[in-house]
């Protein structure tokens, strides 16, 4: 966000000019924050009792949500820049992945990142 230029129009309106890539990143962050806020406030659609049982019984929250969003491992893996085998290992707890990967997965599944983490409760 260091590449922002500020200008004033002849009418006195102040404008900020920034690279498109930074604008898109801001939009994506805003959408993610709005989704997270809605999720926490209970505004997003809830799970049916059967879906809730499936979430609890899934090998991992990631595995459940990927299936819930009707994505194959191969499609999700490609969209977040890893191999299907790597994603499978993450789903099965054999690998962890770094936080940036988890954030890409959350965004690809249109979920707050917290919904992908098994807190052990």
Task: Quickly describe the structure.
By secondary structure, the protein is mainly α. The chain has helices spanning 20-40, 49-57, 61-68, 73-80, 84-91, 99-108, and strands at 5-8, 14-17.
CATH C-level of the largest domain? Mainly Alpha
Estimate what percentage of residues fall within beta strands.
5-15%
Q: What is the string of helix and strand elements?
A: EEHHHHHH
CATH architecture of the largest domain: Orthogonal Bundle
- End-to-end CA span: 39 Å
Largest sheet report: 2 strands, antiparallel
* Cα-atom radius of gyration: 19 Å
Outline, from the CA principal axes? Answer: elongated
Q: Which structural class matches the secondary elements?
A: mainly alpha
- What's the total count of β strands? 2
Instruction: Tell me the strand order in the biggest sheet.
Output: 1-2
Q: Kindly state the mean pLDDT as a whole number?
A: 85
Name given to the CATH homologous superfamily of the largest domain = lambda repressor-like DNA-binding domains
Subunit arrangement of the protein: single chain
Give the total of domains. Answer: 2
CATH topology of the largest domain: 434 Repressor (Amino-terminal Domain)
């Amino acid at each position: 966000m260091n590449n922002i230029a500020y200008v004033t129009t002849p009418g006195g309106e102040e404008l900020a000019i920034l690279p498109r890539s930074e604008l898109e990143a801001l939009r994506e962050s805003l959408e993610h924050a709005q989704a997270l806020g809605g999720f926490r406030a209970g505004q997003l659609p809830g799970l049916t009792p059967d879906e809730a049982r499936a979430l609890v019984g899934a090998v991992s929250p990631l595995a459940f949500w990927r299936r819930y969003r009707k994505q194959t491992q191969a499609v999700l893996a490609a969209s977040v820049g890893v191999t299907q085998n790597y994603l499978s290992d993450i789903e099965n707890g054999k690998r962890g992945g770094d936080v940036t990967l988890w954030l890409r997965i959350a965004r690809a599944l249109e979920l707050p990142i917290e919904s992908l983490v098994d807190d052990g409760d």
